[in-house]
Amino acid sequence: MSELYHLFLRTEREKRLHEQAAQLAEQFRKRAHWYDEQATFPFENFTDLKKARFLSLTVPKQYGGEEISLYEFLLVQETIAQGDGATALSLGWHLGLVMNLAQEKKWNPSLFARVCKEIVEEQRLLNSAQSEKATGSPARGGKPETTAEKRNGRWVIHGRKTYTSLAPALDYFIVSATIKETGEVANFLIPKSADGLKIEETWNTLGMRGTRSDDLILEYVEVEEEALVERLSPQKKGQPQGWLLHIPACYLGIAIAARNEAIAFAKTYQPNSLPHPIANVPEVRRKIAEIDINLMTARHFMYSIADQWDRNPEKRAEMKQELAVVKYVATNTAVKVVDLAMRVVGGQSLFSSHPLQRYYRDVRAGLHNPPADDITLSLVANHTLDG
């Protein structure tokens, strides 16, 4: 058991989940460079995750899943990310959405039960497709240009979505669209087999290349009436969503991997100008200490908030600020930690074969995951000054 987890693993189940995730992460670490270099979805990693039954971790027990807590979910995410950040972030979207749907009970119970059964028995994958080029992040309130129209008792969906993570591997897409007749915004559950559904390979990015967050094209896709799974009320926007803490957990996991690279390098690298490894150089020791202090601060904050979310459901409605600040602190900490790790390793960290350059690129993506820093700062300022 890593010394980084001795205070965080409180139960036998948490220890088991961490150990299982660590074993998977070690396999993912060996493949991470290739998937990043090729910008290819990590199908082999997801085959391993399916064999380990990880896709049903957040499915309720009544449907055959493990129904892990938010705290346990973050342990899994942070650990998997130490092997491959893109795999962890992709997994997190699926697991988090299932957790949120189970907690919020937004869907028709029979439909949700059917999807859960498929996840448990067949390890099916789902994710939402909400973003569009014209609207930007859904968190900023833009109305989808993708449309839904009722024809002969069926819904016809037409439009294009961006940032559709796991696009090549998904079995179901949860698509937001504006209903033409009423102007309402609703979510529709669309299977990958639907006629007119296509994936356009647009994902050629600096970081998180393996998520394959390609464009989803919907060319007058017809689905059954029950495909409308939720009407999105403007009044419900901005409600606290604990499951989104999978994002900071992922980036802190990448930062831990960078920290471990820096420590291993410092303990073994000895230039001929020194009689000892650079781990004995005061400035290197200061940087390593700064890395650990930053990680300690962010991780204790994140796990504390997750624990409060799990233990106090009645307080969840009041936790929007804390959840947003966890993401703000964690992602900015991850960027800082990777930067410090690269300063310890020096020029060698710039080589494309070195994992630190991948960590550097991947953690930058965290700044653009929801909520963005400016939204969090505005939220805190409004709460403090106007609340």
Given as residue ranges, the uncertain stretches (5+ residues, pLDDT < 50) are: none
Can you count the beta strands?
A: 8
- The name CATH uses for the topology of the largest domain is Butyryl-CoA Dehydrogenase, subunit A, domain 3
Tell me the major beta sheet: 8 strands, mixed
Rg, alpha carbons? 21 Å
What's the N-to-C terminus distance? 44 Å
Give the rounded overall mean pLDDT: 96
Pattern of helices and strands: HHHHHEEEEEEEEHHHHH
Strand content: 5-15%
Helix content bin: 40-55%
- Give me the CATH superfamily of the largest domain: Butyryl-CoA Dehydrogenase, subunit A, domain 3
Q: Give the tally of structural domains.
A: 3
SS content category: alpha+beta
Number of helices: 10
Can you name the CATH architecture of the largest domain? Up-down Bundle
Assign the CATH class of the largest domain: Mainly Alpha
Shape: globular
Keywords: Flavoprotein, Oxidoreductase
GO molecular function: acyl-CoA dehydrogenase activity; flavin adenine dinucleotide binding
Region (Disordered): 127-149
Organism: Thermaerobacillus caldiproteolyticus
